Input
Amino acid sequence: MSTLRIALAQIDTCVGNLVTNASTVLAYAKRAAADHARIVAFPEMTLTGYPIEDLALRATFRQAAWDTAADLAQTLQQEGLGDLYVVVGTIGTDHDNGKPRNRLVVLHEGQVVAGYDKHFLPNYGVFDEFRIFSAGERSTVLTIDGVRVGVAICEDIWQEGGPVADLAGQGIDLLLTINGSPYEEGKGHIRQELAARRAAEVNAPIIYLNQVGGQDDLVFDGGSFVLDTDGTLLERSPMFMENLSFFTLDTNQTRQTPTTIAALPDPDEEVYTACVLGLKDYMAKNGFTGVTLGLSGGIDSALVAAMAADACGGENVWGISMPSMYSSDGSKDDAADLAHNLGAHYEVQPIEPLFMAFQDQLHLEGVSAENLQARIRGVIVMATSNSKNVLALATGNKSELACGYSTIYGDAVGGYAPIKDLFKTKVWQIARWRNKALTQGMGIGGLNVVGNEDGASGIMPASGVIIPVNSIEKAPSAELRPGQKDSDSLPEYALLDQVLAAYIEHAHGRADLIADGFDEQTVDTVMRLVDRAEWKRRQYPLGPKVSALAFGRDRRLPVTNAFRE
Amino acid sequence: MSTLRIALAQIDTCVGNLVTNASTVLAYAKRAAADHARIVAFPEMTLTGYPIEDLALRATFRQAAWDTAADLAQTLQQEGLGDLYVVVGTIGTDHDNGKPRNRLVVLHEGQVVAGYDKHFLPNYGVFDEFRIFSAGERSTVLTIDGVRVGVAICEDIWQEGGPVADLAGQGIDLLLTINGSPYEEGKGHIRQELAARRAAEVNAPIIYLNQVGGQDDLVFDGGSFVLDTDGTLLERSPMFMENLSFFTLDTNQTRQTPTTIAALPDPDEEVYTACVLGLKDYMAKNGFTGVTLGLSGGIDSALVAAMAADACGGENVWGISMPSMYSSDGSKDDAADLAHNLGAHYEVQPIEPLFMAFQDQLHLEGVSAENLQARIRGVIVMATSNSKNVLALATGNKSELACGYSTIYGDAVGGYAPIKDLFKTKVWQIARWRNKALTQGMGIGGLNVVGNEDGASGIMPASGVIIPVNSIEKAPSAELRPGQKDSDSLPEYALLDQVLAAYIEHAHGRADLIADGFDEQTVDTVMRLVDRAEWKRRQYPLGPKVSALAFGRDRRLPVTNAFRE
Output
């Protein structure tokens, strides 16, 4: 036989939840078999979830993962799927040194019949794999119905040499790579270019199968694809949703037949959907069904509220307006309009009586009194979080997080910060896009969103927008003293965001920034703010390490962790 | 010549503060030369500070560090110290791939005359060196006055093979290792046993020179030492303080002559001093001269206040008693006594009026109402922190941090948590020791402590104790509802701390813990609490990554960072 039908199961797993992850594999395997697949492939570390961080170091976890793979192989057999080759990621153990390994296994005829260990262990950016895994040394080729399938795991195709170079010398018919590649704006085309180079290198088509879903602070965007030997796109799965697609390899043909190619979202939709999916999955995987947040009438809280309503339905969003003596009427109206547009709960808790009660005792002035207002709001948001058992959302954006332009334990309160990685100028852009998406009836990354006909709330506001135009257009202000504007303390955002991008994302130093054309005073202001802000981002976990294992940088555990053994 | 006089400069550096670090090197080099040293050795990454985390990835920082080393070599020459061999740690660049390297350089006759790059890059526990450095491949032997000195950096001696094995084959007269080895309880003897093995391996005496001082959540304990070829201790520097000591190697002798051997602190003094030094340095390196904290009358805040007074003087400690309707009179008295004993500022801010003001609006019940009390206290502590520009201290211990038994944004408020790595049972033990140290007039790690004759405050309380006995002996309670005790929610601490040690420090799973003899119910309670508490420890930085570089696990920057270029 010279054809091989492969199912690409782009699924959303949960770290530590071996039982649920195995069930998902079984369900997709059934669907794959029903559609005549010989192989069904799942993402990197399917059974364990990914990334598992230091949970990998727990021996009971590795044992349980091993048992899960063995049990799953038997269950597949019992369910009449023994013929199917099920390729899943999991954790293994290096028999030489006992260290964990990032492993791909093949389940077939009730057994774990083959394995491959990831060779290149990324240890930059968000990755810490050299910390927890030892590296595999051998390449693996599966021969199925006479077709030679080489396998690789994620970083293996990002580095020169290693298993791909090895496979290139062995003559394979297909390269199958399973991935847990986190979302970054515009990363899709980088993956595709890279995969095209590897297809050329091994002289065969390549399947790039990616994980989908949010895990703590990462979002996996899916967007799995198949390229022909010459780089032609043969298949593309949608981004940001679970999906099962099929590709049939015919080794008698030099050109393969294309199949379904999902459309790509536009760049703003892509970012918006990534944020919504990250929040939605964080809630689901940590047992939250609703959220609460302060609604100031400003753009940050408005965008976060819209994302939250799209993630869990407006009826599960508790918005709290907490006006002070410095809040403008416009701000209060904008907050109310927003909540109405989203179908969210809306409550007004004026902070003035509370502020006066504190001031009777504390007599604070200046920034201390400004922070007090923000902290009273933080207390109210957390009271709602506790009493309604909903997740508190922090509404800070990347510009203010970078500069420390927020009150710690005040507006920075929250268990999850949906827009913490969006610069302020991007916040405005995405908010405008969200309004446009509504009026044009555009879908949003397959999500069931507020305002769309099939949306959770089905509301179409009379104003024709979700986010009040005033929230987008007015000059940003913390409203903590009369007439305050962000621009009193920070450069204008259009400039600030450029400096921040150069300083943070491109690691430019002072001299580089001045050479970039930014004026000295702006550069010095921004550098001073950014360098100091790390202090705010790292409260409480900071304290001296005394024992062999302290909390903090010693132990790197996933927040989402369903493992209980 | 067959003798070589070496100065061991055990100094405290600051990450990013190239100028100050270079000045300290110059000052110690002068003292070393005045006492006829030929070589003066400094700790790992002396010029840059250590650990520098992702600051290593900034090109301007590497350039500035390089310039600093070159300038320092010239300054030493100009100051008449050109003859001296000055061994310092710094950052280098790998010319093949542009990656940073963890480098040792030798300054002599106005030049950087030799270099060695760390071979083994630790990437476990608190270490992330594989992430930021590339590994050196060559060993280096310095020949000075005919004496062959092999060099190594920290982890190089912790792993088998590598540069030490290489040096063993080359015949050296002395092994000099420069270190940034963080403190852990009881680690001193492990280092010494290891060094003895390496001395035997290279068949020569070994100098183990360690950094001292606090850097973010690490404390470096110093305790540098020299061992003879047979492992005999020849020199030991004191722990927890800067120090310059000397050792003269005579290659004509098979046994070297011992010199100063500093006494070791007792185990409780060691832990206490580590916590005080960590706090003291965190304050100094981040520009704080005072602290504030809530004084509940309980043991945690009492011990933290004592540490703070020992770190910065009682007159720089602002203690705030914040009684509620549930606070016992005993608690209020204990808080007042403690502040008096420490010579600390003491203020009473009843929270009942504030609590009533919130409840008029919020009508909270149960745990939500308990958390409200703790959060009102958090607001007051932060108000003091802001208005007096002092560091807020969190008083949580490791047992409650592990179990999440605290109110986020409430008692967990603070920029630094001095006892976050002490289990509750250890808190009691250390508090008792601190009282005993006072009454016996014992020194504390060379620190100028409250109550000692030469102490900063010079107070000897009439009670004969610093920490009120009642704070140590009463049953622990959060006092957030009538008659509340910690034991209502947690196993007794004597048991809890054992389970926590087994679960956290030894990574025992559920089955292991039951095999350890703990009952199932306790095991399940503790595992559930601990697994959930990660959520509390990781607030706000958590949110979806959208760009190539987000805050959170992407960028790992030191909090203390004085670099401004």
About this structure: The mean pLDDT of chain B is 93. Chain B has 16 helices and 18 strands. Chain B touches chain A through 110 residues (CB under 8 Å).
